[in-house]
Description:
This protein is α/β, with parallel strands linked by helices. The chain is 46% helix and 23% strand. It is built from 7 helices and 9 strands; from the N terminus they run βαβββαββαβαβααβα. The relative contact order is 0.21.
Amino acid sequence: MPKTLIVFSAASGAGKTTLMNRVMPNFPNIVYSVSATTRKPRAGEIDGVHYFFKTEEEFKGMIAKNELVEWNKVHGNYYGTPKFFVEQKLAEGRDVAFDLDVFGKINFDNVYPDAIGILILPPSLEELEARLRLRKTETEETLSLRMENAKKEMDFALTKGKYQYVIYNGDLESAAAELEGIMEKILLSLA
């Protein structure tokens, strides 16, 4: 039975992580991909579980050896998908879910063109800004930068991205039900 790769993308604040945390426990056979990063671990994060934490030198070595499916530098840190992890999980017969930005998804598709894309969008840019403000983690300068990046990402995803499904996350319960239905449809089509 062919295994599938499911890529989730969204602008920061669209609610992708909240939706994934709500829905993915209902699909215990799907393993969540572990990315490599150069950012420092946050409290409670475990190397090899939450991320593969690398120095910048180690990460650049992975790039040079072509050990990453995709990679990018985001907010000053490198993030990427290690090939060994994806290949290991596929060899184990596992379906794999990924959390990639819209630009990383394009590179990912070059290696895995059959990956299924699910794009999570906010109902509006105004709502996105309100959500980011509610976090109280942004200065006006970083908020402005995130909003500018979000506009670029959403435009790129909708015009150049390869997403089979788009969910507008205006209401968490409705969006979660829609995502769960999409996941069931994807997995049933591969059964």
